[in-house]
Amino acid sequence: MMLPTMATLRATRFLPSISVFNNLFHTSTTNLKMIKGTGEVVIPEGWTAKNKMVYPPQELGEERRPAWVCHMRGQIRYSPKKMYYVAILVRGLTVDEALKQLSFLPDKGAAIAKEVIEEAQEMAVRDHNVEYKSNLWVADSFCSKGHIFKGLRRHSRARWGEIRYNYMHYYVKLQEGLPPKHYCDTYQRDGNEKLEEFLKNHRQKFIQKTP
């Protein structure tokens, strides 16, 4: 009969049971909201549900409302912190210019964003009556944190470390027409323009419980 070595006793002494790991992982409030009862990860559908909005008919002489489409891709194996820089790069650009800029980036996130924008471009022509697929601009582009899976990594001296597998969701909105001249409002306005904007904002106020 072989006697256990000192290393085996030390590892057995400090090694938690599997049930302890199962109780500690995937039990936060955010993670539980993202997991169905079947164990599948829930992908948010509120962004794509905006495509089902129905507007009332426009009045005669009213400016035509531009078409737009919302699209997303969920649970992408990529860091949301890295994807943030790719997402803000294409905001306010035309579709052709956004695809051109993304094609020169060597990042994985750029390839993901390019595919999602191309899918949204096809959806706009196929489902939302956009005549020319080049007559679109990126009205919004952002990402959010997805479900994070946790794992274990074995270290020396019978120790264990936690591994986090980050996932994220990428959202994009394309709108028909040309992009605005100043998307990020970086234009330096003079006093008269600031006064006009101030008065315009105050005239558009709505006071509740008034006739």
Automatic annotation (TrEMBL):
SUPFAM superfamilies: Ribosomal protein L22
A Pfam family reported for this protein in Swiss-Prot or TrEMBL: Ribosomal_L22
InterPro entries: Ribosomal_uL22 (IPR001063), Ribosomal_uL22_bac/org-type (IPR047867), Ribosomal_uL22_sf (IPR036394)
Keyword field contains Ribosomal protein: yes
Alphabetically ordered keywords of this record: Ribonucleoprotein, Ribosomal protein
Cellular component GO terms, alphabetical: mitochondrial large ribosomal subunit
MF-aspect GO terms: structural constituent of ribosome
GO aspect biological process, one term: translation
Family note: Belongs to the universal ribosomal protein uL22 family.
UniProt name for this protein: Large ribosomal subunit protein uL22m
